[in-house]
Amino acid sequence: MTAHPDMHAIATAMHLLPALVWGIVAYHSWRLRRDLELKGSLLVLSSLTAVMTCLHYLFHAVLELTPTELEGRAVGLHAVVETVIAVLVVASVALFRHMIPMLALPEEPRTTRWLVANYAAAGAASVLALAWLVVPGWRDAPGWFGPHIAPVVVALIMSALALRHGHRLARHGVWRAGPGVVELRSPDVIVVATAVGLTGALLLAMVLAGSTTPGTGIGLFVHTAMGLALALPFVVRMFGRVVRTFLVSVAMIGVTAAVYGVVRIPVSPEVAGPVAVAAIATLALGLVPAHAWFATVTERLVFRRGDRRQAELQVVLHALSPEAGVVACCTSALAASAA
Question: Cα-flanking dihedrals φ and ψ of residue 75, to 5°?
Fold first, then answer.
């Protein structure tokens, strides 16, 4: 039975939401490494993990945007996309597990043997995911014998090992926000453990239903919520940057969707051409100014900052004298920011 087109649109939107969040996390992780001139590999791993997870949800959106009718013209398209998704899951989990020891204070080094074992397991799981290309009949194997089940099971096992390690290293207490704060805390372990548990339940439901994708309804909701929950520890540590970019991105997507909606309004052929040209011109010439305007509005409405206020703070900071000492400078800066 073919799903209603509106359900495909809803499912696509639900997959694109965590993809957007993870894409923003990847961007700001890389920017932080450059801005703070950090030489370690922690932000590199977090960037790669975010990229893999972002692609995971993007390819799920691709599945929704390419109906099964295309299988007749692009044979095996969905199977290839599902294979890519399985490989991305394993890769992101391997990167995440590698990242866990770096979040300890002090950092816990990993031996070459541990690293080889970690990525060898991910590589073996990826080979299992790709094996149906060599053994085509395996693609249609039922339930737990399917080519995409083994990689996800391996990913769950690796996630459980990472959580056990993270539980031992995590410090108790609430999250400490800030881009320079990378300490592993107990809420990180709780959030990830919950997401992994939901993943296991979703996998079991998929196997019992004979499916390789979350589908619609509860499974789709769990899959989306899982992606957002896993992003939460990263978002907390880059809250201001991520929220700014997310709100501006949503606004720009809304503008694009509105222009597309106008173009789709039924009109006479004589008017359709000028309307399409006007829509393209609006997007081409208006998105850059609109981006700056939305960024300014977000800054003022959400974070309650204006250009004048920032200028005043800059003047105060430049007026501080280092000779006064750290305590005096901090006291003056705090008083100025709270005024």
Answer: -60, 130
Q: Which of 58, 68, 77, 208 is nearest to 139 (CA)?
A: 77
Q: Which string of DSSP letters, residue by residue, matches 84-119?
A: HHHHHHHHHHHHHHHHGGGGSSS-----HHHHHHHH
Give the burial string for 112-126 (b: 16+ CB within 10 Å, else e): eeeeeebbebbeebb
- pTM of structure: 0.74
DSSP characters for 276-295? HHHHHHHHHHHHHHHHHHHH
User: Shortest CA distance to 233 belongs to which of 307, 174, 153?
Assistant: 174
Task: Determine the straight-line distance between the first and last CA of the chain, rounded to whole angstroms.
Answer: 63
The runs of H, that is alpha helices, within 147-268 are 149-169, 186-209, 218-237, 239-263
Q: Which letter does DSSP use for residue 210 in this model?
A: T
The CA distance from 305 to 282, in Å, is 29
Kindly list the distances between the CA atom of residue 187 and the CA atoms of 37, 42, 104, 232, 314, in Å, as whole numbers in the listed order: 28, 19, 14, 10, 35
- The token pair at 234 is 């990263």
Q: What angle do CA 154, 159, 160 make, to 5 degrees?
A: 100
Q: Which residue has the tokens 């060898």?
A: 120
Helix (H, G, I), strand (E, B) or coil at 2: coil
Find residue 171's DSSP bridge partners. Answer: 185
pLDDT at 92: 92
Going by C-alpha positions, the residue among 41, 16, 11, 17 that lies closest to residue 29 is 41
188 or 313: whose pLDDT is higher? 188
Indicate the SS3 state at residue 305: coil
Average pLDDT over residues 263-289: 67
In the block, which residue shows the tokens 């592993």? 184
199 touches 226 (CB < 8 A): yes
The secondary structure of 9-22, three-state, reads HHHHHHHHHHHHHH
Query: pLDDT digits over 40-84, tens only?
Result: 678 888 899 999 999 999 998 888 887 655 454 556 677 788 888
Q: Which residues pair with 185 in a beta bridge?
A: 171
